[in-house]
Amino acid sequence: MTIMETKTFKTIFTPYTDESGKQIEIKQIEIPKIQRDFAYGRTDEKNSRKRENFLSSLYEAVNGNPITLDFVYGDVKNNTLTPLDGQQRLTTLFLLYWYASKKENITETDFLKCFSYETRPSARKFCEVLTTRDFELDNDKTLSEQIKDKNWFPLEWQHDATIASMLVMLDAIQNKFAGVENLYKKLDNISFYFLPIEDMGLTDELYIKMNSRGKPLTQFEHFKAEFEKQLKVADEALAKRIGSKIDREWTDLLWQYRNSGVGDDNDNTTDDEFLRYFIFICNIICYKNGGSPKTSDEFDLIRDYFTVKGNNKAQVIENAKTLELFFDCWLDDNRKSIPIQAFFESFASKEHSAGKIKTNYNVNFFADCLKNYADIIGKNRRRFTLNQIILLYAFVTYRQNLSIVAENDFRRRLRIINNLILNSSDQISDSEDRQGGNHMPAILRQVDNIILKGVIADSEDVGLNFSPSQLEEEKLKLEWTQNNPNKSESLFALEDHELLYGQVSIIGLDNPEYFERFESLFNCDWDLVDCALFTIGDYKQKERNGWRYQLGSSMPEGFAWKTLFHQSENLIGFDNTKDILNKLLSLNTAFSNDYLNGLISGFVTNCETKSEFPWIYYYVKYKVFRPGRYGKYWWDVFDKSPYVFTTLYQSKKPSENSYNPFLKAIEEDVWREYYGNYIYIDEEKCLIETQSSYQIVSNDEKEDVLKDYGIAQNENGVDTENRIEKMIKIYEHLNSAS
After folding, report:
1. pLDDT confidence tier of residue 694, bands split at 50, 70 and 90
2. Which stretches does DSSP call E strand in 452-559?
3. Measuring CA to CA, which residue among 10, 228, 17, 12 is closest to residue 101?
4. Which residues pair with 6 in a beta bridge?
């Protein structure tokens, strides 16, 4: 076996004498029949990434950063090289040299004629005609289009896998290198290690034996080699230490999460899990440096964070140590994995539990990251959300600082973080398009302050941080729990209520006896709670910039109550709702459906006794006013017409299922095409409702009033007769008369 040499694709055809005195001359390179088709040009996701990564490395090389590729070796016999390893690199370089020669009209390229494929006659012929026929580039067309248009390109060649891949690669080369001047000369910056294996007789049996050491290098193996290679430039000892940990401790750490069960990822390795956590760490590094992640490609991330460029060596070392800490924090003093599932279960739960945060996510945030932290950049939907990123970062920060953060302190601080996340949906974003830019850097700084110091920082990051109102609430609650340690658990239980999820401002901290009363109230029928609140006062809230109003609802998801109970700049009337809710909570220590029914019956009876029927009376008495949807209503001109409004079926806009409840209480079948604001009487007439009357109008000209049935009202515009009962009788008479 001869000594390994460094060659370019051009100089490999130049005769030379190796260090042992052996004369080496290669006149032909032939890809053997036993080799697979050219793969770098395949269009599947895996090979597309390989192609892009390889071409990006070559592009950097021709632009001033020379590169020496991994070794190419094979049998040299009768001056012909039959590659055993290096087919993909050699083919790509062949196509790159061919493109450069055509781009710059280089004519001394006979060496290109020395490259051929023996896999299929069509592939061999394609290489031959590509290097022997005249070809002028048309920059307005892709290379594949131009080649397919040639009369020497038979249609059936498109079905040859190697030729099809070569055409894809040529288009990618054209796209990547079209703007590079003096490209042909700059290709001297690309070399590779060459190892000729002499007199071996490269039979199919030998080829299979040598290649059957395994499959071609996996994407992860390529990644690991490149990662360690770049780290060595910054710090060889650090690179060696991290490389060893990847092979040993970190593989053992991830082993329990490997893909060994079902699906396409059933490879029984930890490769994918490592890469997902690697991407998570790189994105944290990006956020901490004030940036926004642009890619989830691991090779791009190596170039961005672990490659020495100019004077960034110290930063590369710091990034590498950050990565090391993010992995090592899950190991114990003996370098073995801690019981991670049990660790997370001790701090998080799906239900309220003392000392834990309540979460709808998988409580093992680390495992979820290893499974789902992939393809989250660009148009792809996030499978591991920003909320989860923040929570996992909080856990990692704690694990890295066990010596300075006591466990009980962390439990309290983690609850603060969780409350902030749950109530900052409008603020949590890593988009640079948002006003003020990416919010994640400021949010992670706040997490550091809370976890490490127990302090909710006042900073210049207001507007880029968590919700300002929730930050203020957490400060108040932190002080309150310090002053009322024996009542803290009652507050935490209130925070975890399904309708509050961390924000308790609708109740406040002045009356802690209300904490448990709130839970007992909403253990009752929510429809009864809605009506009971109206017996105290008009608690609804109005959209600040719209015409909709928010009321409660019996809808199981609790959308209406969650909206009412969380302060928002979009709604007016939060303080009024809070006042009415607290008045209701002050009435009893333990609510029940019977108790609420008593309040409601008393209210209805009082209205009927006094013959005063405000719109709330109808809302409480008649179920049709409360359809159990999103609690959205539309008052056209509220101050003038409290009796004329529309019950909305959807959360944001009127639909054909919307209706006027005063009409629907009279006749179920309201006109859907008019948002339920008309009742059909006959072909010529329909019925509508106004502030103080019902009118029969013409079907054709609805402003043409044919009959008016007035509703008696007092000087305050409040009904003094039940308009629904009155109109039911009139409507029945109209129907019988027709």
Report:
1. very high
2. 541-543, 548-550
3. 10
4. 193
Asked if residue 480 has pLDDT above 60, the reply is yes
d(CA 614, CA 617) in angstroms, rounded, equals 5
What gap in Å lies between CA 334 and CA 248, rounded to an integer? 13
Q: What is the pLDDT of residues 158-170, one digit of tens each?
A: 888 889 999 999 9
Q: What is the pLDDT of residue 18?
A: 65
- At residue 72, the pLDDT reads 80
Cβ atoms within 10 Å, residue 143: 24
* CA atoms lying within 13 Å on the CB side of residue 695: 16
Opening angle at CA 69, ends 87 and 170, nearest 5: 55
Residue 607 CA to residue 714 CA, distance in Å, equals: 14
Q: 377, 374, 345, 375: which is closest to 362 by C-alpha? A: 345
| Secondary structure letter of residue 16 according to DSSP | E
Which range among 202-211, 517-526, 662-671, 729-738 shows the weakest confidence by mean pLDDT?
Answer: 202-211
- For every residue of 73-107, DSSP letters joined together read EEEEETTEEEEEE-HHHHHHHHHHHHHHHHHTT--
Q: How confident is the model at residue 547 (pLDDT cuts 50, 70, 90)?
A: confident
Compute the distance between CA of residue 482 and CA of residue 349 in angstroms, rounded to an integer. Answer: 24
CA dihedral 576, 577, 579, 583 (to 10 degrees): 140
Q: Which of 626, 671, 669 shows the shortest CA–CA distance to 648? A: 626
Going by their DSSP bridges, the two strands 115-117 and 28-31 should be labelled as parallel
276 vs 217, which has greater pLDDT? 276
543 three-class SS: strand
For residues 674 and 688, is the Cβ–Cβ distance under 8 A? no
Alpha carbons 135 and 103: distance in angstroms, whole number: 10
| Other Cβ atoms within 10 Å of 360 Cβ, number | 9
Tens of pLDDT along 337-379? 999 999 999 999 999 999 999 999 999 999 999 998 865 444 4
Query: Which structure tokens are listed for 460?
Result: 């210049």
Cβ atoms of 459 and 465 closer than 8 Å: yes
193 three-state secondary structure: strand
Tokens describing residue 724:
């629904």
Which residues have C-beta within 8 Å of that of residue 229, sequence separation ≥ 6? none
- Could you report the per-residue pLDDT of 36-59, keeping only the tens digit for each? 678 888 888 778 888 888 898 899
Q: Do the beta carbons of residue 535 and residue 599 sit within 8 Å?
A: yes
pTM of the model: 0.74
Structure tokens at 508: 């406040």
Q: How far apart are CA 203 and CA 72, in angstroms?
A: 18
